[in-house]
Every structure is written in structure tokens, then in C-alpha cells.
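Below is how a single chain appears once it has passed through the pipeline. First comes the sequence as given, then the structure the pipeline wrote out for it. We keep one example in the README because the format questions we get most often are answered faster by looking than by reading.
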Amino acid sequence: MGLPVSTTLAGRHALVCGASAGIGAAAAVALGSAGASLTLLARRLPQLQATAAAASAAGAPAVRTLVVDLQQLRPLEVAIADLLSTDGPVHILVNNTGGPPPGALLEADGGALLQAFERHLLASHLLVRAVVPGMRTAQYGRIINVISTSVREPLDGLGVSNTIRAAMAGWAKTLSRELPPGITINNVLPGATDTDRLASIRDGKASVSGQTPQQVVDGWLAGIPEGRLGRPEELGAVIAFLASPAAAYVRGVSLPVDGGRLRSI
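Resulting structure:
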């Protein structure tokens, strides 16, 4: 019936934000292994270079690095304009960046919320507006936002993150109704995934609660039916699928990848 079942990304150009570590790095490797050429964006060049090497080894036909801080919107705008003018359209955009510091929402001042809003939602919106014209011309576009299961069930001790992640989900759902056919936007909602950020949250909880770090992890595992932490490469595989032609009819969803931790339907 001519259904678009392919998962190859040959001939496609993917821009992966937060590609220096964790889920972003795993997404870059997965997209590269599917045949996409890559632009890897983050603040830390040595770590970006390590991701670039891993993606090249996995089969990415071309890899570029772009050292930009998503908190700095004007430099980000200039860097993306330069990228599009020299390397052509971006067909796949992965919006991903480190989450806000943990803490109670009541203890966060307006500056903390504004900083998170700029780094997550405003930077993502800037990037979408920049890349959509090229996606429209190519008649192919995939926008994947890495956010959190907290858009369904807020997480204790992550007040600012819960707030901003929910805003991102609402923003993406709105865009899913506005983007033209052939350009999709979806959210991936990681659960407890074995990354540096999770280790930082673990250590912070241990310090506050008097538990050992392992006791904190054991508490998390008790609520995960799969019985373990997620692996970044598992998230990368889901992102690569959503970026592929096979996912052409998946649009405006928030997909948990959490080992069954969410209790809501």
C-alpha cells in the first residue's frame, strides 16, 4: 500500500541539542547510525568531540559541532542562521538540554523560572522557527523534544522543572496543530535514566534525606515495574524512530519511556 515504513535517515540532516552527554549524545549516535548527517550543539567542545567520534564510528556520514549556550538566545540565533546558510536545511531537530536545578517551587524566585523558560521554551521556539522553512521546502520535518514524565505526574523536589516541562508540552501540542503536513512534533518523556543529571538529583536527595545514594536509587526502582534505570541509548532509539519516515503519522504525542513508572493512563 506504499506505507512509509522505512527507518533510514539517509540524506537527512539532524540538529541535536545537548549532544555532549546523556540522552542527547545517545540520540546523536542513534540518528547517525540510521544514516543522518549531524550537527551537534552544546556548550562543551571536548564532550561534543567525543560524541562526534562515537556517531562517526556508528556510521554517521558527516558530523559537525556547534558550541553554543542555549541560554544565550542572540548568539544561538546567529549560529543557526550561519548553519542553515552553509550546510542547508535541517530535517530533524532534537530539542534537549539539561534540566533546571532541583528544589521546591515555593523556594524558587522569578529569576529561576525565567532562566528555565528562556533555556528550554524560548530557545526551542527560536530553533523551530528557524528550521521549519527548510523542512517545508523539503516536505520532511521531525521535531522531537526531550522533556520529562513530570508533564503527566509532577516529581517531588523538581518544582521549576515540573513547571517548565509542562509549558514545553503545551507549546508542542499547539504547534502540532499548526505545522503543515509532513512536519511532525512529538515529545519523549524519559523516566529515571542513568545520566549525570540523575546522579546529581540522587546525590542531592541523599544529602537532604540522610539516605545513602544507593538507598535513593532503591526507592526509585521500587516504583519502576521494569526494575531498573533506563539507559540513554534506549531513549536514543525511540528518538531515532520518531525522526524516521516510519513515524510519519505520529504527531503531537508525549511518549513516556520510563519502564512503566507512570501510573496515569
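The beta strands are 13-17, 37-42, 63-67, 92-95, 141-146, 183-190, 254-257.

See the next section for the split statistics.
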